[in-house]
Design goal:
The structure is a homodimer. By secondary structure, chain A is α+β, with helices and mostly antiparallel strands. Chain A has 3 domains: 85 residues, Rossmann fold, CATH 3.40.50.20; 61 residues, Dna Ligase, domain 1 (2-Layer Sandwich), CATH 3.30.1490.20; 170 residues, D-amino Acid Aminotransferase, Chain A, domain 1 (2-Layer Sandwich), CATH 3.30.470.20. Chain A is 28% helix and 29% strand. In chain A, the strands form 3 sheets. In chain A, strands 9, 10, 11, 12, 13, 14, 15, 16 and 17 form a 9-stranded antiparallel sheet that branches. In chain A, strands 3-2-1-4 form a 4-stranded parallel sheet, sandwiched between helices. A 4-stranded antiparallel sheet of chain A has the order 5-8-6-7, sandwiched between helices. In chain A, β13 and β14 form a beta hairpin. At the A-B interface, α1, α11 and β16 of A face α1, α11 and β16 of B.
Chain lengths: 359, 359
C-alpha cells in the first residue's frame, strides 16, 4: 500500500503537451508540485511544471531518476510506450494504471474490451493485410474507416473508404501497419463524457458535451448537449462501467456517437482516452471543478470535486494560425483565452482555445 | 518606447510568495512565461514559474542577469528596495513604476499623496521621536494607531494607543523607527477596491468587496459588499484618481473605511497596495477575469478583462494550521481550495484560501 498523498507531494507527468501544462497548473492550486517528463525541451508543460526531465521515453536511467524524484506518476497521452510504463509502475503508483494504457493505446484491444462489456461499438474487423481488408469490407459495407491500431490522433492514421474504392489504395496509405476497419455509424451528432474515478471506486461524471469535429480535429464543444437528463445518466453509466472494468484511477473520456432511430436515441462508443481530454477544456471555467483539478484529486486519492456546470458553455479550439487573433480575442468581454505558449503554429496544431460561459 | 509584449514573452516577478505564484499561473494561461526572483529558495512562486533566480534584492549582478532574461518586470510586494527598482527600471519596463513603489512603501508619503488628491484619509502626523508622538496624540486624541512608515504588513509594525496610554511605551515598541500616527476612524466596515489600469490609461475596477480582519490579518472577503451601485462607482472613482495620478500600470488595491453618518456613508482611504491583493482572491472563481490575469493583461499592455462578478462570493484565508483541514475542505462540494504549497505552517502565516461562489 502506497503512502497517502498530501499537499507538498510531487506528481510526475509523462508527456509535456498542453494537457500536461493544464494538469500542472491545477496541481499547483492544490499544493501539489509537478515534474514533467518529455523528450522535447520546447514542450508547453515545462513552463509551469515545478521540475522537468528532457529525455527519451526509452531512457531507462532517466525514467528511474524521474520515478525517484516524484511521489506518483500520471500521463497526459495514451501512447506512453509499454516499456516506459513497465519501468515506472513498480517504482511509484502509476495512475491510471497499465491496464488502462494497454487497452486504450490499441484500437483493436479497446473495441474488443468495450464490446465485451455489452456496450455498443461500431462494427469492426481486425485487418492485417489487404486481403483481410477486402473481406472485412465485404462484411461491413461502405463507407468504412480504416484506422491504424496504434498511434492515431486528431484524424491521423485514418482513411475513409467510400463505395467503389478498392481496398488496395487505403491499405497502402496506412503503410501496412496493423489496423482495424470500422463500419460506418450513421450518427446524428457526437458527444463525450468526461468522468473521474478514485482509487476507492468513487465516480463523478460531467454532463455530456456536444462536439463538432472538422478534418478529424475537435473544433468546438458546447453545453448543454441537447441530450435529456436520462440520456446523460445513461452515458455516464457507460463511462462508469468502462472505468470500473479497468479499475481506473483518474479522469477518463469516452467519445460517443449519438444515433437517432425511430424508437429514440442510442449511443455507440467511438473511442476512449485514458486521460483529460480536449472536449473537457470547457470545465476550467464552466464547471465548479475542472477536469484537470479532478484528475489531480482522483490520482491523489482525494475527494472528487463537483462536476456542476455553471452556465451555457462554448469552447472553441484555436488551430494553427488562428492563434494570431489572440489580441482581438482578449478584447472580447468575458471570453477566456488559453494560449499554450507553443512557439510554432503549424497547420493543424492545437495552439490554444477559448471558452465563453453564459450564466 | 518598449517593444509590444506578445505571448511567448517572459514576465519577471520580483518576489516569490503566493501572489507571485498566482500571477505565474495566470500568465501561463495567456502564453506568458514567468521568471521569479526571490532570496528564499523555498518560495511558493518557484513551483510554477518558468524560471527562477534565488538571490538577494541587493545583488546587482543577479538583478542585471534577471533583467536580461525577461521582457518586462513586475512585483508582488511593495517593499521592493528602491535600489533594486533603480537597477531594473532602466533595463526593462517596470510595471507598476518606480513612482507607485516609492509612494506605497512609505505610509507618510502615501497618505500625503492621497490627501493631496482631495481624497479623505485618516488624520495623521509624522512621528520621529517620542516628543512628536506626544504632540500628535494631543492633536488627534485616542484611540490612535502608531505605524512604522515602512515595512508593515498584516498588522506588523503597528501599535494601538488607547486613552491613558502614554506615548513612551508605544514609541519603544516600534524601536524608534520613523513612524506616523493615525487618528481613529470610527468605521462601520471595511471594503477594498481592486482595479487595473493599462499603459494607455484604460481602467477597470472590480466592485468593492467587504473585508473582515482579525489580529491585523484579512480573514474573509464577501460580495456583494452591501454598498449601493452608486457607492461602488464612487469607490472606483477614488481608485482611478489615485491610479491616474501615479500613471499606474497593473492591478492596484485601495482599502477603504466606510463611515456611517447621519447624512449617509462616506469613504476614508486606509491604505493602498501597488499590486494584486489578498482581498482580490475571490476574483479567481468569482469574476470573469481574475485579478491575476488582469494584472498580466495590464502590465503587458493588452485589453483589460471583464470584472463582472459571477455570483455571491465568500473567500476565507487559511492561516497557520487551519491548512491542516485541507482534506475536509476538498470534500465540500463547490468549495475551491487554494493551497500555496508552503512547507511550514507558522502561526499567522497565510497558507491558503478557500472560495465559494453561489450563482
Amino acid at each position: 500500500m502506497a503512502e497517502p498523498i498530501r499537499p507538498g507531494a510531487t506528481l510526475g507527468i509523462l508527456g509535456g503537451g498542453q494537457l500536461g501544462r493544464m494538469i500542472a497548473v491545477a496541481a499547483a492550486q492544490l499544493g501539489i508540485r509537478t515534474h514533467a517528463y518529455c523528450p522535447d525541451a520546447q514542450s508547453p508543460a515545462f513552463d509551469v511544471a515545478s521540475a522537468g526531465t528532457v529525455a527519451a521515453y526509452e531512457d531507462e536511467d532517466a525514467l528511474r531518476r524521474f520515478a525517484g524524484a516524484v511521489d506518483l506518476v500520471t500521463y497526459e497521452f495514451e501512447n506512453v510506450p509499454e516499456r516506459t510504463a513497465a519501468i515506472v509502475a513498480p517504482l511509484r503508483p502509476l495512475r491510471p494504471g497499465v491496464k488502462a494504457l494497454a487497452t486504450a493505446q490499441d484500437r483493436l484491444v479497446e473495441k474488443t474490451f468495450v464490446a465485451a462489456l455489452g456496450i455498443p461499438v461500431a462494427p469492426f474487423r481486425a485487418v492485417g493485410s489487404e486481403a483481410d481488408l477486402a473481406e472485412a469490407l465485404a462484411d461491413l459495407g461502405t463507407p468504412a474507416i480504416l484506422k491504424t491500431r496504434r498511434f492515431g490522433y486528431d484524424g491521423k492514421g485514418q482513411v475513409r473508404i467510400e463505395a467503389g474504392d478498392g481496398p488496395g489504395e487505403a491499405w497502402a496509405q496506412l503503410g501496412g501497419a496493423p489496423a482495424i476497419v470500422e463500419g460506418f455509424v450513421p450518427f446524428a451528432f457526437e458527444v463525450s463524457i468526461v468522468a473521474a474515478r478514485g482509487p476507492d471506486g468513487a465516480f463523478a461524471a460531467y454532463e455530456p458535451c456536444l462536439n463538432e469535429h472538422r478534418g478529424g480535429i475537435l473544433r468546438t464543444t458546447r453545453l448543454p448537449s441537447g441530450l435529456t437528463d436520462a440520456e446523460g445518466e445513461a452515458a455516464a453509466a457507460l463511462a462508469r462501467a468502462i472505468a470500473d472494468a479497468l479499475d481506473y484511477v483518474g479522469v477518463l473520456t469516452v467519445e460517443l456517437f449519438v444515433v437517432e432511430e425511430a424508437g429514440g436515441r442510442r449511443f455507440v462508443v467511438n473511442e476512449m482516452a485514458p486521460r483529460v481530454h480536449n472536449s473537457g477544456h470547457w470545465t476550467i471555467e464552466g464547471a465548479e471543478c475542472s477536469q484537470f483539478e479532478q484528475h489531480v484529486r482522483a490520482v491523489c486519492g482525494w475527494p472528487l470535486g463537483s462536476t456542476r456546470r455553471t452556465g451555457t458553455v462554448a469552447m472553441r479550439n484555436l488551430i494553427g494560425d488562428e492563434i494570431d487573433a489572440w489580441r482581438d480575442l482578449l478584447a472580447e468581454p468575458g471570453l477566456h483565452l488559453h494560449h499554450y505558449g507553443k512557439t510554432r503554429a503549424r497547420p493543424g496544431r492545437k495552439m490554444g482555445h477559448v471558452t465563453v460561459v453564459t450564466p
